[in-house]
Amino acid sequence: MKSYIFGPVLSRRLGRSLGVDVIPSKTCPFDCVYCEQGKTTSLSSEINDWVPIQDVIRDIKNSLHTNPDYITISGSGEPTLYSRLGELIKEIKSFTSIPVAVITNGALLWKREVQDALLSADLVMPSLDAGDEEVYKKINKPVKEISLDLIISGLIEFKKRYKGIYWLEVFFVEGINTEISQVKKISLIANKINPDKILINTIKRPPSVKSARTVSSEKLLEIQSIFGSKAEIIPDLKSDEHNSNSEITVKDVINLLQRRPCTILEISNGLHAKPDKVQIIIDHLLSQNTILKVMIDNNLYYQLTTPS
Question: Quick one: angle between helices 85-95 and 53-63, nearest 10?
Answer without folding.
Answer: 30
